[in-house]
Amino acid sequence: MGELVLTGNGRRYGGPFRLFPKADLRDGLLDVCVFPRVNWLTLVRCGPSLLLRGTLPASAVEAFQAESFTLASPSPTPFELDGELIGHLPVTFSVERSRLRVIVP
Hints:
- By secondary structure, the chain is an alpha+beta fold.
- It has one domain: Tumour Suppressor Smad4 (Sandwich), CATH 2.60.200.40.
- It is built from 1 helix and 7 strands, in the order E-E-H-E-E-E-E-E.
- A 3-stranded antiparallel sheet has the order 1-2-3, with no helix packed on it. A two-stranded antiparallel ribbon has the order 4-7.
- Strand 5 and strand 6 form a beta hairpin.
- It is globular.
């Protein structure tokens, strides 16, 4: 359970921040970072490490990898994707392996 959930497939989030250090674009797994609470204490615990090293302290978040996962809430909870409100929970995330083909000349 958590108040803020971030997910990604690459190591970086929001520019220089390495929130998903185990991420690998080829492994077929999503990387998930769960903040149990989001309050001033969370900001005090995470802010310095994030600003100085670009990482989060492991003790402040729960991190895991999964092929798919579902976020749900007992009450109506807004859901944002890339900063845009797109609906409400529940929502399911999954990876489609080798879906994007890149051709380099």
